[in-house]
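The records we work with from here on pair a chain with its fold. These numbers are not coordinates but entries in a learned vocabulary of local backbone shapes. To see the layout at work, look at the sequence and tokens printed below.

. . .
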Amino acid sequence: MKKLMLFVFLLLSQFIIAQIPFSKFLQDTPGVVSFTFRNEFSKDVPGTLDFIKEMGIRNIEFSNLFGKTAAEMRALLDARGMVCTSYGVYYDALTNKTEEVIQNAKTLGAEFVRVGMIPHKGEFTIQQAAVAVKDFNRVGQKLRENGIEFSYHNHGYDFTPYQNETMYDYLIQQTNPAYVSFELDILWVHQFGQDPLAYLKKYPNRFRLMHVKDLKKGIPVGLDVKTSSENDVPLGTGQIAVQKILKQARKSAIKYYYLEDENSNSRAQVPLSLAFLKNL
């Protein structure tokens, strides 16, 4: 009887905590991209999950399973009351191993499957973009039929100019909204000379996921400018208008926000980013 009462108490406590908003600005605590702690995950998956949970983060977007099977990773998450809402895979796996991707996503409990790179050599061409559109529509439909949503994550080559817009606009406009959504990485958009705020206003219903990150002040931006992951800084300390972007994002279709910090010092920087979002 005591064990049952304890179980009910813990369950009720978790429910109450889940109803408490993360901040006045964001209802839910943002998730984190596994790439943020790639070095830690490569050495100790359970310990890294524990560290993430200690920060109050329960939601992870996995870009890599770090040697674990989907079932093994799901068991580790379940044991900690954590979830994987988005599962990142390579383009080749998406298009040539679709059934395997679907099964892994279902095992993980992921609502989204995400691809972050369209293979290309040299300049990204309209022909390559057109092939990607066909692949995204085809595979996106297959994923949707299995209860999973497909999302494409931008980097920089996407913003190659095309007909007074960009290749990114082409991808958004040519893909079927019923099968293809987008994950907006605000640093990469900004780094390559575009405005994340403008894209959220232009396509409010196409973005479903967001990578929230900031770029060190003084770092130049533009299509041909290279940058280092060491220029990722805690939110609110860099040159990106994070608060304005998030304010606009609340008017969009975005469901999940993920912190991503590619800096080698991410272990120290992520708590600072969380504090910034908490105090908005």
